[in-house]
Design goal:
Layout (H helix, E strand, L loop, with lengths): L4 E5 L5 H11 L4 E5 L3 H7 L11 H8 L4 E4 L2 H7 L2 E4 L19 H13 L3 E6 L7 H11 L6 E6 L9 H6 L4 E5 L3 H14 L8 E5 H32 L3 H9 L20 H14 L3 H28 L8 E5 L14 H11 L3 E5 L5 H9 L7 H7 E4 L2 H4 L5 E4 L11 H6 L6 E4 L6 H7 L2 E4 L6 H7 L12
Helix pairs in contact: 1-3, 5-6, 9-11, 9-12, 11-12, 12-13
The structure holds 1,4-dihydronicotinamide adenine dinucleotide.
The site of 1,4-dihydronicotinamide adenine dinucleotide has 26 residues, from helix 5.
């Protein structure tokens, strides 16, 4: 069978960019991306795509209508496809057994049932969503239990490793592509067909074939290792603040060891995004279910450290602002969980802002890509507060950072957007309340320059001397509960 038609169920942060790149690199294949959400599909077919990713607009513009199609017609797309990607969301369960930890596979199961219902002939079903180990087995079970005469399926695991903000680059030049499949002639044939698709642009040596279970677990393990590095350097950042060491210097020294490497060693206010937390919790849950409590506790600590880091930073802001932020205005720079994306899922900004709002602060929030409504929803939903009306009154969303800082007591940097580095902070200082504070939760600003301008400057994993801080805050040195 030659793959001529691909269907992808789920037009989200993974399905949309992944299939756009497949359509771009494989002009001989028709790619149909479907979703149950009418709004999402409408946006994919419009001039303003539902997600922001550098380079994505150009790829979609070139392929849409040629061999790339977005629609809500799931049945037709599944029926016509030779190969179907399942790229639906697998959030943490919010109910029942495994609540707060296990991955919710209801969307995956619905896809499997839909595929079984409408399929004709032979189909390769590819699990692209991140799932617990042995989920492919469940998909295969649902498919085989509902298979009609003349219909057959092969299920593959092909987890996605793109990072938001660099999705197109990661898809075009992946470090590796994993394809997990059944050890049988049919399984190997299906693996060969998916390999053929990737071979349009990915060299064979980067394509790793392995067992389905190893493939599924490799994705969870990769995210756990990445999150663990962030939590490790953040743990060291707390030690730096307590001892007078500088976490950037420590990270640079540690990263020079070729066995450790320098990537992902940037201390910050914590990791966010839809995956790290969810996949870690999923791993913890799997370990618990398999009666491996020590393994579960080990990975649980990675997410606990992240929580500690966010809370620690929020408390430090309150501590430095003379132990109260009630009725003070704080300008928040950045709300997305990282730069170059408009995604706010599990963003540290939500946690830090909620803490400050709980303390009665007024927040002037600016983010270059996140929509105002998204910020309001994130800060007023039931997970964030029990007092949505009060919170709504305390937040103002700005589209000009220079307006956001007017009469503010402090600037709080929560996303590492490049543009924050180029602002005229001298100009900002003139319209702020004095002493003016900057809390750089991403370690991206020129701290010495800010101190020279007169800002009281605080950052993660580094303590400026009392003398320096006294100079910048006009002789007032707040009490630092975090200082030894
Ligand atoms: P998303 O929430 O952005 O998109 C999922 C889409 O699936 C939504 O548009 C939803 O309407 C649609 N959907 C859900 N059930 C459906 C059904 N039964 N029929 C049709 N459409 C349905 O999720 P995202 O971020 O794209 O993630 C998808 C999967 O990929 C998750 O398992 C995630 O863990 C994994 N992943 C995500 C990465 C990321 O950076 N966002 C990176 C690597 C993997």
């Amino acid at each position: 069978m030659v793959i001529k038609n691909i269907c992808c169920i789920g037009a989200g942060y993974v399905g949309g960019p992944t299939c756009s790149v497949i359509a771009w690199k494989c002009p001989d294949i028709r790619v149909h991306v479907v979703d149950k959400s009418e709004l999402r599909i409408k946006q994919w077919n419009s001039g303003k795509l539902p997600i922001y990713e550098p380079g994505l607009d150009d790829v979609v513009k070139e392929c849409r209508g040629r061999n790339l199609f977005f629609s809500n017609d799931i049945d037709v797309a599944v029926k016509e496809a030779d190969l179907i990607f399942i790229s639906v969301n697998t959030p943490t369960k919010t109910y029942g057994i495994g609540k707060g930890r296990a991955a919710d596979l209801k969307h995956i199961e619905l896809c499997a049932r839909k595929i079984a219902e409408v399929s004709e002939g032979h189909k390769i079903v590819v699990e692209k969503s991140t799932v617990p180990v042995r989920a492919a087995e469940s998909i295969a079970h649902i498919l085989s239990a509902n298979t009609k005469p003349g219909v057959s399926f092969q299920v593959l695991s092909n987890p996605e490793f793109l990072a938001e903000g660099t999705a197109i680059e990661n898809l075009v030049y992946p470090d590796r592509v994993l394809i997990g499949g059944e050890e049988s002639a049919e399984g190997e044939a299906a693996i060969a067909q998916l390999t053929w698709i990737y071979n349009h642009w990915v060299p064979t040596e980067k394509i790793i074939t392995l067992s389905t279970w190893s493939s599924e677990l490799s994705k969870l393990a990769s995210n756990a290792f990445l999150a663990q590095r962030v939590s490790s350097i953040n743990a060291i950042s707390a030690l730096c603040e307590a001892t007078g060491a500088d976490v950037s210097q420590v990270a640079a020294a540690v990263g020079r060891d070729s066995r450790i490497g320098s990537k992902f060693l940037q201390a910050s206010v914590g990791f966010g995004g839809s995956c790290f937390q969810k996949d870690l919790l999923n791993l913890v849950y799997i370990a618990e279910c398999l009666n491996l409590p020590e393994v579960a506790m080990y990975w649980q600590q990675v997410t606990d450290m992240n929580e500690y880091q966010r809370t620690r930073f929020a408390k430090r802001i309150v501590g430095c602002l003379f132990n109260t932020v009630t009725d003070k205005t704080l300008a928040v720079f950045g709300f997305a969980f990282k730069k170059n994306t408009g995604d706010t899922r599990e963003s540290p900004a939500i946690f830090v802002c909620s803490h400050l709002l709980e303390e009665g602060a007024r927040l002037n929030i600016y983010d270059p890509k996140v929509e105002a409504k998204q910020i309001e929803d994130d800060l007023t939903n039931a997970r964030a507060t029990s007092e949505p009306e009060r919170v709504q009154k305390l937040i103002n969303i700005y589209d000009d950072p220079y307006e956001a800082v007017r009469n503010a007591h402090a600037i709080v940097v929560l996303t590492e957007w490049d543009e924050f580095k180029t602002y005229d902070y001298k100009k900002m200082l003139t319209v702020m309340k004095k002493p003016a504070f900057i809390f750089d939760g991403r370690k991206i600003l020129d701290h010495e320059a800010l101190i020279s301008l007169g800002f009281h400057t605080e950052t993660i994993g580094k303590r400026f001397s009392r003398d320096t801080l006294l100079r910048s805050s006009g002789g007032h040195c707040p009490s630092f509960s975090w200082m030894p």
